[in-house]
């Protein structure tokens, strides 16, 4: 698949960082290929941050998944809040704009880490 992928990160809700008391300073890293990552700005002090930020990726062959990683920015480094993977073949390619609340799956039976609202569009 070629062309461009336009990803709009709208907002997140109910973000849970199990290690931290208080609110998250959240940002999202997104990528198709680990060598080229883009990220949102950091929204401080919210478990329901709003970004409304748009990102464009040039698609290469075999890039069939969009990865989202949500982090809590910390004074020393960052804590992972959760991550999700969106199957572009299933939801986006040849189907027009895809809009969804993407769940951040829980690990080891813990409750969900929250959800991220995205719109993804493929321009061949």
Topology (SSEs and partners):
Layout: E1 4-13, E2 26-33, E3 36-39, E4 50-58, E5 65-73, E6 78-87, H1 88-91, E7 98-103, E8 115-123
Antiparallel strand pairs: 1-4, 1-8, 2-3, 2-5, 5-6, 7-8
CATH architecture: Sandwich
Largest sheet: 4 strands, antiparallel
Which strand order does the major sheet show? 4-1-8-7
What sort of overall outline do the alpha carbons produce when their principal axes are compared? globular
Strand elements, count: 8
Provide a count of the helices: 1
Number of domains: 1
Oligomeric form = single chain
What order do the SSEs take from the amino end to the carboxyl end, as H and E? EEEEEEHEE
Question: What is the C-alpha radius of gyration, as a whole number of Å?
Answer: 14 Å
Give me the CATH fold name: Immunoglobulin-like
Give a verbal description of the structure:
With 124 residues, the protein is mainly beta. The protein has a single domain, classed as Immunoglobulin-like (Sandwich). Helices cover 3% and strands 52% of the residues. It contains one helix and eight strands; from the N terminus they run ββββββαββ. The protein has a four-stranded antiparallel β-sheet with strand order 4-1-8-7, with no helix packed on it. Strands 3-2-5-6 form a four-stranded antiparallel β-sheet. Strand 5 (65-73) and strand 6 form a beta hairpin. The radius of gyration is 14 Å and the shape is globular. The mean pLDDT is 89. InterPro entries: C2_dom (IPR000008), C2_domain_sf (IPR035892). It comes from Adineta steineri.
Defining traits:
124 residues; mainly beta; Immunoglobulin-like; 4-stranded antiparallel beta sheet; 8 strands; globular; C2_dom; calcium; metal-binding; C2 domain-containing protein; calcium ion binding
């Amino acid at each position: 698949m070629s062309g461009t992928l336009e990803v709009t990160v709208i907002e997140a809700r109910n973000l849970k960082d199990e290690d931290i008391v208080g609110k998250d300073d959240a940002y999202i890293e997104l990528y198709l290929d680990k060598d080229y990552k883009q990220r949102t700005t950091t929204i401080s002090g919210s478990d329901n941050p709003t970004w409304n930020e748009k990102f464009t990726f040039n698609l290469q062959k075999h890039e069939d998944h969009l990865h989202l990683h949500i982090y809590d920015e910390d004074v020393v480094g960052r804590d992972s809040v959760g991550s999700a993977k969106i199957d572009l073949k299933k939801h986006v390619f040849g189907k027009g704009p895809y809009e969804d609340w993407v769940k951040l799956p829980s690990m080891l039976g813990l409750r969900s880490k929250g959800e991220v609202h995205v719109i993804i569009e493929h321009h061949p």
